[in-house]
Design goal:
CATH architecture of the largest domain: Orthogonal Bundle
Number of strands: 8
CATH superfamily of the largest domain: Intergrase catalytic core
Strand order of the largest sheet: 1-2-3
Structural class: mainly alpha
Distance between the termini: 130 Å
Number of helices: 14
Low-confidence stretches: none
Largest sheet: 3 strands, antiparallel
CATH topology of the largest domain: hpI Integrase, Chain A
Shape: flat
Strand content: 5-15%
Radius of gyration: 35 Å
CATH class of the largest domain: Mainly Alpha
Amino acid sequence: MTGRLALKNGLWYAVLSYKDENNQFKQKWINTHLKERGNKKEAQKILNEQLQTFNPHEEKPKQNETKTEDILLVDYVEKVFNEKSSSLSPITASAYESIIKIIKLYFKDDLLKDITYKDIERFYDYLRYERKVGNTTVKHYANVLSPAFRQAYRDDLIPKNPFEFLPKIKRDKRSIEFYNKNELEKLFQYTDNTDIGLIVRIAAYYGFRRSEALGLKWKAIDFDAKTIKVEHKVVKVKKILYRQNKLKTEASSRTLPLIPEIEQLLLQRKKEIEKNKTLYGKSYNDKYNEYIFVNDIGDLMLPDHITQKFNRILKQNKLKHIRFHDLRHSCASLLVANNVPMKNIQEWLGHANFNTTADVYSHLDFSGKVKSANIIEAQLSVGVEDEKELEREIEELKKKIREKEQLKKALKLKDNEMN
């Protein structure tokens, strides 16, 4: 018999795994009634006591209890997801729900215990060739399946974890769209006088994600220290608006210098908001006073509005189509083009690790290739120049020999004339 601690609805549970009289694997969840924070040691004591005193043979089987061999893969995947969903961001949880729907369609009545790594490989092929998705999306499916099999193995529901035998999914070589300096300046001409003008400039100047830009509050701007801080986000999932301090990763929380041009635009924005408050009076919504991006009557700007307005401006003015998120890539491309080190770009964009930045943007660093070409030319051209110099010296020597021969002939001819 084995045991472990698990969290459920903010409480610690002692989970005991054992075999019944029919040699079937079972689990017993025992509520310790201890809250998560600061109680893990106490919960561990309860688990240890249960391991010493629990008698599996005294457990009466529950009516209609599902046997281990009858557990469907899709049911178990959904169970594990539901246990972990509270710790996921709304966007991730929503994406995983969609993934589980596809998993249900593919595996249908397949039993958990029967799944091999070959079955999962075939599922990956189905995703790539039937649903036409790339490896990045395949990895998202693996992120849903893998925890379920890991949990099933820990709970002795399967003899081995098939994910241990699967090769690592290779990263896709991403093709990114972006605007260069001239294209951005042209874009600003069309957006500056609209309600999304400032957020477009902030996304392009700082590479902020849409959720990070919409989440900017006035307290994130320090006009004295000249800094701007990312510490909050606004996202919309299934028509529900979420305002969260939890960002995509820890690295996403970052403090950057306040660019003078953005500072002036923010000060101007403050004046516009105060003017709107006076203009609309009691009709003005004070609920979102702490946010920078609100509309004329004080309502929080919605992500859909930003994207739709951005796309409409591009189409109306016949500008190259990019996504709003590609303003982030445009920012990075300008940094790369101006020889900013990749590590600095990672910190500016708030990437969790260096590899993400390098994988996405290293191919833009053409200056490095030019430098390599110059070094090769400098090294190899030495031999070429030496050869050319040698040829010049030989020609010069031949010329001197010819002149000497001509001089000899002239002297001989003069001697003959004198005689």
